[in-house]
User: Fold this.
Amino acid sequence: MDNVVDLTGLNRALDELAKLSSSQQLAKSPTTDYVDSRTTEQAPRDRPMDREYTDAKMETVRAQNDARFAEVMAKLEIMSRTSITKRELWAATGTSIAAILGVILAVLAFAGDRFDAGIGFSSQVAEQAAIDASQDAKFDLVIDKLDNVADRLEGLEARLPTAP
Assistant:
């Protein structure tokens, strides 16, 4: 169905209404006669111009309603063409869930790697502390020996003859 609304009925009814409303007979005659039921007056007269005017008004309203209905139906058809199916919805949902799980697994893998590095580093720290302790002990021996050598040199210096 095209998005074009057929307004020929509406245009025809509006033209007929315009003809009738421009008529002088319609403008001069009242639309209804009110009758008091307690009096002996006649019932309201059936005026042909009033009936034509009312029919034209009804035709106009009917044509306007048809035009609105056609517009609504056109919009509904467009919406039905652009809506997604259940299969597409489930596919999109599955893809989203897979993407979220992938991100979660990537974060956990990165965190696990960092955790393992921390655990592995603690054993290296302990090994390095043992190496540092043994090196400190060696340096202490070297420093003690250097102090002994310095003390001997001072004793030798005191025994050496001084130059005149």
Q: What stands out?
A: The helical segments are 8-22, 24-28, 48-82, 86-159. Residues 86-159 form the longest helix (74 residues).
